[in-house]
Each structure stands twice: as structure tokens, then as C-alpha cells.
Write a structure and sequence with these properties.
Blueprint lengths: L1 E9 L8 E2 L1 E6 L2 E7 H7 L4 E11 L1 E3 L2 H6 L1 E2 L7 H4 L4 E2 L1 H7 L3 H16 L3 E5 L5 H10 L2 E3 L35 E4 L4 H7 L4 E6 L2 E5 L2
Parallel strand pairs: 1-5, 6-9, 9-10
Antiparallel strand pairs: 1-2, 1-3, 3-4, 5-11, 7-8, 11-12, 12-13
Length: about 210
């Protein structure tokens, strides 16, 4: 099935010219076309259309995925939050107190990947050594890239430490490219950097809508 995703503004990658009323045409797990919504809709009248508020961009890359998912624990809401709180738990002493097991790491990683998807993340860097975490990452759809240097602690905010939101874009939206993008309820990349990735309203990986803000 063909699906057209359109937003008030389309930014296809770093250094590209933003297109108002732009859209991407998704066929399977690939982008079949990119351009003005009116042109894509006229050329493909039977395609399903999804209209989003804000800006549609390439999905974001989060650095330090292994630190976020193998050295950070995400309490299970609501079962653990009364005792542990809602914030992620990290640090050797705190994690030792939780008596972590491989299945528990896997369950935590699943919650962590959902938090990343809800921030428009489509790829992470890192090397995963816990089998249950690797499985959770693969099943989430997130792409895994080799570890890269970064300053400070890893963050669920892929824009942390960036001077421009475009620096966190993963890939370019062009015909033939993977259908991997996100939509944020902001006016553009500058406002995205200011307001942060929790403004994400939709994340698409492999042509599938894996996060939609309710």
C-alpha cells in the first residue's frame, strides 16, 4: 500500500532547503517519492494520506545506546514506580542494589526503546553485549551503528550537546531511501532544538508507524 505523509514543513536532510507543504510517499519500507503534497497526491490518487502538524524530518540518531539501554534501568510503570520512582536509574551502586538479571535488562530495554521512539529516534550508536537487550533493540526497529565519541553522559535527548537539530538527523529523505523519519510539532529545526524531541508526534521506521502521540 502507498501512503503519503505530509506536514506543514518538510526538511529532507542537513543543508537542504525546507519545503512548505512537502510530503513523502512510502511504498513498503522505502520512500518512493518526495515533493509537494499536491503533486504526490495527484500522481497517486489512491494512496492513503496522513497529515501531521509541524515539521517532518529524517529520524534522529541517539549516541551511547549501550549506555542508555545496558547501563540504565527504566522502572516498570506502574508496578515499580512507587518504590523506585519514575526516573531512569544508572550508576554501578544503584544498579547493584536492583540485582539485575538478563530478563530484567531486556524488559527495561524495551521500555527504553519506546522512550527513544517517542523522541523521534530511529538509530542508536553502541555495542550491545546483553542478549536480551540486543533482542529488544532489534525488535524495536532501531538501527544500530558502531560506537562514536560523545561528550558527557548519554541522553534520551538526541539533541543534547548539538548546536543544530540537523546534526542529529540520520540519513536523507530521498527516493529509494529507507522510510525512516519523524514528525515534530514545532515550526522548524530551530524550534525543535529549543523545545526538544518530546515534541515528536510520529516516528516511522521501515514504513511502519511505530510511535504516534495520542
Amino acid at each position: 500500500m502507498l501512503t503519503i505523509h505530509t506536514a506543514e514543513l518538510l526538511v529532507t536532510g542537513q543543508g537542504t532547503t525546507a519545503l512548505r507543504g512537502g510530503a513523502v510517499l512510502v511504498e513498503g519500507d522505502r520512500l518512493a517519492a518526495v515533493g509537494p503534497y499536491e503533486e504526490l497526491a495527484a500522481a497517486h490518487p489512491h494512496a492513503r494520506a496522513r497529515s501531521w502538524p509541524g515539521v517532518l524530518t529524517p529520524g534522529l540518531l541517539a549516541r551511547g545506546g549501550d549506555e542508555l539501554l545496558e547501563r540504565t534501568y527504566y522502572p516498570d510503570d506502574p508496578y515499580e514506580t512507587t518504590e523506585l520512582g519514575t526516573e531512569p536509574i544508572s550508576g554501578a551502586e544503584a544498579l547493584d542494589g536492583l540485582k539485575m538479571t538478563e530478563p530484567r535488562w531486556g524488559n527495561s530495554a524495551r521500555r527504553g526503546t519506546q522512550k527513544l521512539l517517542a523522541r523521534g529516534v530511529v538509530a542508536v550508536t553502541g555495542r550491545f553485549t546483553i542478549p536480551s537487550v540486543r533482542t529488544a533493540v532489534v525488535r524495536s526497529g532501531l538501527a544500530v551503528l558502531p560506537p562514536t565519541p560523545y561528550e558527557g553522559p548519554a541522553s534520551l535527548n538526541p539533541l543534547a550537546g548539538r548546536d543544530r537539530a540537523e546534526e542529529a538527523f540520520h540519513g536523507v529523505l530521498e527516493p529509494g531511501a529507507p522510510a525512516r523519519f519523524a514528525v515534530f510539532a514545532v515550526a522548524g529545526p530551530a524550534e525543535l532544538l529549543e523545545q526538544g524531541p518530546t515534541t515528536c508526534v510520529a516516528t516511522v521506521i521501515g514504513g511502519r508507524l511505530l510511535h504516534r502521540r495520542r
